[in-house]
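RESIDUES AND SHAPES:
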Amino acid sequence: MNVSPEKMLSAFRSTAEIRVHELAIASDSLLSGVEHLTALNLNTGRALLDEAIAVTQAAASAREPRTLVELQVGSITPVLRHGHAWLTTAGTVAGQAQSDALRLLEAGMSQWLQGVILTLELLHRSAPAGSALTVQALRSVVANASSAYDGATRAAAHATATARTHADQAASAALEALDRSTSATVSLIRSAA
């Protein structure tokens, strides 16, 4: 084989440097996601606390039991809307982190496959006579594995996007139905008095 130890060492060093750089990018992405989720938790908690204080103050100033019931029934929808908004945003942040990690993984996999292909080319050039069929079979295996990985990645991304869309639509429809039901209940309580 015509590959010197210096070339091998240089290739390994270059690959290691690329992997370290990819890990740094991945950790930055992860920390960014954690920061977004922390801010989301603080903002959602603050909004829920403010609403709880407002409902408590309104309940303290209520003079009739009917008003207390209206407050309790009316406070359900805002809490669920905050929960839905939190889940949607958290899902978006998690999806972005997953997308970033997958992109880095795909880039690493692509570089690894390029290295394998390059190694196969070097083996083919320095292989003994009659081994061309073996090298060609190895190339075919690498190409099939790469194609299968790409197909699986695309299918997983499509399934995730479809499931997320359906879940968001179902949650929005449920919140709208609950909002209408809550409004109808409050109106019924008001008209009963």
Notes: Residues 59 and 68 are 6 Å apart (CA to CA). The first helix runs from residue 5 to 61.
